[in-house]
Design a protein that fits this description.
The chain contains 16 helices and 8 strands. The chain is α+β, with helices and mostly antiparallel strands. The structure holds ligand C2E, succinic acid (2 copies) and fe (iii) ion (FE) (2 copies).
């Protein structure tokens, strides 16, 4: 066994000595205790389990009460993998709150070979351990696959180790799930706030999600870090929150606005800023700047302040281009969607006038990825849903 960067690498494929077992436990428990990120936690726990029982693979499956499925994270950045709650050994373990010790999966009728069929992997020995929360409710299961020692099968000792780890994991998982739950709720509230701003009752409000995704993409492509890109993604959907103050007779007018109506419409930037500016939360602070400045123009002819060039906050410059792209490619109560060539022409023409020239280049160079976002979050009109 060797050790590097705090991770262990069992090169001999032998059972851990008790000394190494303690090393693994201490190294992982420390990291697990300080991780509040659910993805990270699942990966750490799976890794720890894999080392402790010397298995080739180890997965931690969680029950999703809403969908009635089991899910896991295979790797960071890759989406959830899901299976039916009653599927295979894991499903059996969860349903009966009982561990399973299998020597050869293919000789057992409970085995669900569909994942093997998709991946070409050959499952043989399997160990499944239920994970309970503090109230004794089963919230998931550990699944270790293929013992790497020469014997090739899991033992009762492995069951004992994993049961211990599972009982510890349950608590950490529950609090991480709670944090995750709160974060998801926050994100939903952000989109709902944005949709209220847009007040486009005839659409599903995917406009704000698209603006969020385009903005994040542009932020990454111009070299902002992941954290800042994520902050822009959270703040940009609120750019039009100030439209809550605009009467429907103007907001939903079918045709062109009169000058007077447009001057009322323009107040939405200031209104949004005033709604959000007093918050000390980082996301809301960013949103207040975006609300205020998303109709400023690079050449200084925008509103409400007439800021110019880099006086306009980069978050607002990004949101501005994302917002206009989406306004043009979508239908509005006052306009039909434009075709892509016309949109590209407009951005080329407005480069350095309405928009930051660097951001125009970035948008046009990444137009395929932008269109993928557009199609992923397509609008479904309420009529189609009913
Ligand atoms: P919005 O619909 O979200 O549009 C955001 C921005 O996209 C607009 O900011 C403008 O920069 C750009 N945009 C949208 N449609 C067009 C277009 O047909 N041609 C060009 N060149 N740019 C377009 P803007 O102009 O400051 O407008 C702010 C908001 O005012 C719009 O938000 C919309 O809610 C409202 N609005 C603007 N013009 C009209 C109109 O003629 N009729 C109605 N009913 N509302 C309008
Ligand atoms: C099973 O436990 O049989 C299905 C899940 C898997 O093979 O990973
Ligand atoms: C604002 O005036 O909207 C905020 C100032 C800024 O950071 O750009
Ligand atoms: Fe706006
Ligand atoms: Fe908008």
């Amino acid at each position: 066994m060797n050790e590097s960067n705090g991770t262990f690498n069992n090169i001999n494929n032998s059972e851990l000595t008790s000394e190494n077992m303690i090393k693994v436990i201490f190294s992982y428990m420390g990291r697990i205790a300080y991780t509040r990120d659910l993805d990270e936690l699942l990966l750490l726990m799976a890794d720890m389990g894999r080392l402790m029982v010397v298995s080739d693979r180890c997965t931690l499956w969680l029950v999703d009460d809403e969908s009635g499925q089991l899910w896991t994270r295979v790797a960071h950045g890759i989406g959830r993998q899901t299976i039916a709650i009653d599927s295979g050994f894991v499903g059996h373990t969860i349903k009966h709150n009982q561990h399973l010790l299998i020597e050869d999966a293919y000789k057992d009728s409970r085995f669900n070979p569909s994942i093997d069929e998709q991946t070409g992997y050959r499952t043989k020995a399997v160990l499944c351990i239920p994970i309970e929360n503090a109230e004794g409710k089963v919230i998931g299961a550990y699944q270790a696959i293929n013992k790497k020692t020469p014997e090739g099968k899991f033992s009762l000792k492995d069951v004992a180790y994993m049961t211990l780890v599972a009982s510890y994991s349950g608590k950490a998982l529950e609090s991480a799930q709670l944090v995750y739950e709160i974060e998801q709720t926050q994100k939903e509230i952000i989109y709902v706030m944005g949709e209220i701003g847009e007040s486009r009752s005839q659409e599903t409000g995917n406009h704000v999600k698209r603006v969020a995704e385009y903005s994040k993409l542009l932020a990454i492509k111009i070299g902002l870090g992941d954290n800042e890109a994520e902050l822009i993604k959270m703040a940009s959907p609120m750019h039009d929150i100030g439209k809550v103050g605009i009467p429907d007779s103007i907001l939903k007018k079918q045709g062109k606005l009169t000058n007077e109506e447009f001057s009322i419409m323009k107040t939405h930037a200031e209104v949004g800023y005033n709604l959000l500016k007093s918050s000390r939360r980082r996301i809301i602070q960013a949103a207040s700047i975006v609300s205020h400045q998303h109709h400023e123009r690079w050449d200084g002819n925008g509103y409400p302040q007439g800021l110019k060039g880099e006086q306009i906050h980069i978050y607002a410059r990004i949101t501005a281009i994302a917002d206009v792209f989406d306004a043009l490619i979508s239908s509005r109560c006052y306009k039909l969607p434009w075709d892509l060539n016309r949109i590209i022409e407009l951005f080329q023409m407005e480069k350095g006038k309405q928009f930051d020239p660097l951001l125009v280049d970035t948008l046009l160079q990444n137009i395929e990825e932008i269109l993928i976002i557009k199609n992923t979050y397509a609008d479904i009109s309420k009529k189609d849903e009913d």
